[in-house]
Amino acid sequence: MSLPEAWRGELVAVGFVTVLLIALGLGTDYLVPFLWGGLTLYLGWHLYQLFRFTRWLNKPKTHPRPHAIGVWQPLMLRVDQLSGRGQKRKRKLSRMLSGFLESTGALPDATVVLNDEGRLDWWNSVASEFLGLDRKLHKGALIDDLITDPVFLSYLHAGQYSRPLHMPAPVNDNISLEVRIVPYGKGKRLLQARDITRLHQLEIVRRDFVANVSHEIRTPLTVVHGYVETMQESSETFGGPWKRIIDQMRIQTLRMQRIVDDLLLLSRLETRGSNEGQGVVGIYPLLCGVLEAAQQLSDDKHHIITLDADERLRLVGNAHELESAFANLAYNAVRYTPAGGTIAIRWWLSGNGPCFSVTDSGIGISPEHLPRLTERFYRVDVGRSRESGGTGLGLAIVKHVLTRHDAHLLVESEPGKGSVFTCRFPHSRVAS
């Protein structure tokens, strides 16, 4: 029976009983008492049914079901149907949750769910191993109280999760972790920690190898270059072909020296502490030196090089590193801008923070090359880069310097129309 049919039957029964009570009341002169008595019994029955129904809903296993009579029969049937759907949905969600817990438990990465207060809701077994979490002790504990590394806490509360954080594991300093935080839902966060100890060790080996080889090459290269210069100075004693050969030898030894110098600089940037040698840097006088060096490099190309800099805007950082980054961008603009082109060097305070930019009217860069520009030895045009004297390490140096100063590089370029390289620093780097 459907609910509308039950209501129609209920109304028919009420009407029949009412007519019967009126007939009895008129026959006995007790019309009002009969009607009041009937209405009271009818309401009392339904109130009793409602009481049993609400009590059964609260504790269905403890209290009996209400009587399924009249309009209550389809209502109870509908409740049973909804309860069955709820049980199916609950079983489905339980299976999904079990599958999620099983899959996340099998992940090789530590996974931790943080609520909107930064408290631990759930974590897998790998997180217990890497982060030292105990299910009996740390459920609902603040992550700040469990991982007290100041670098991690700064990363956690800064809210800038676009880059991962590298840190030692709280339980073992010999384990290196790459930590990522992903916000989701209403204030919740998913923390993932990955073991990169082997990668870290390989990176140290690579870095040490490059530094050691560069140091070893530097001395013999200096000797060779010195002899080549001596031979070049007395080249009149050699025949014509030898002069060209010696000039080529000098050019190539100079190029190799620049590569070695850049490799050693990169090695120092990777091994030096992020705050080492930092102080208040006057950017304007530094850029005046970069401008003068760029003009000397331009020489007979007659580039129009301009400088527009805020003389009062100073930065907290390492002066030598910043000069190296800014100079690399300026020198690249000189190398890849045809003779007579324009190069604009600018330093200003924008709404997003201090900015340094180099704009040129050079050959430009195709879009497919932009994501790889800061890779070591990556060249857009190998032949042209070597002819211009580039080492392929300049933008890698720029990237490392900016990373150490909490900044990032933006590149806008169009082939044939030039490029704009912008270094954007955070407001926190402004020196008052």
Structural class: alpha+beta
Instruction: Give the helix proportion (percent range).
Output: 40-55%
* CATH top level assignment of the largest domain: Alpha Beta
Q: H/E element string?
A: HHHEEHHHHEEEHHEHEEHEEHHEEE
> Gyration radius, to the nearest Å?
39 Å
List strands and helices in order, with pairings.
Blueprint lengths: L2 H26 L2 H28 L13 H35 L3 E5 L5 E4 L1 H7 L3 H4 L4 H4 L3 H9 L6 E5 L2 E13 L3 E8 L1 H37 L6 H32 L7 E4 H16 L5 E6 L4 E4 L1 H17 L6 E9 L2 E8 L21 H6 L6 H11 L3 E7 L3 E7 L5 E2 L1
Helix pairs in contact: 1-2, 8-9, 9-13, 10-11, 11-13
Report what the structure shows.
With 432 residues, this protein is an alpha+beta fold. The chain folds into 4 domains: 3-93, no CATH class; 107-195, PAS domain (Beta-Lactamase, 2-Layer Sandwich); 197-271, Signal transduction histidine kinase, dimerisation/phosphotransfer (DHp) domain (Helix Hairpins); 278-431, Heat Shock Protein 90. It contains 13 helices and 13 strands. The chain has helices at residues 3-28, 31-58, 72-106, 125-131, 135-138, 143-146, 150-158, 197-233, 240-271, 283-298, 319-335, 382-387, 394-404; strands at 110-114, 120-123, 165-169, 172-184, 188-195, 279-282, 304-309, 314-317, 342-350, 353-360, 408-414, 418-424, 430-431. The strands form 3 sheets. It has a 5-stranded antiparallel β-sheet with strand order 2-1-5-4-3, with helices on both faces. Strands 7-9-10-12-11 form a 5-stranded mixed β-sheet, covered by helices on one side. Helix 8 packs antiparallel against helix 9 and helix 10 runs parallel beside helix 11 (319-335). The radius of gyration is 39 Å and the shape is elongated. 19% of the residues are buried.
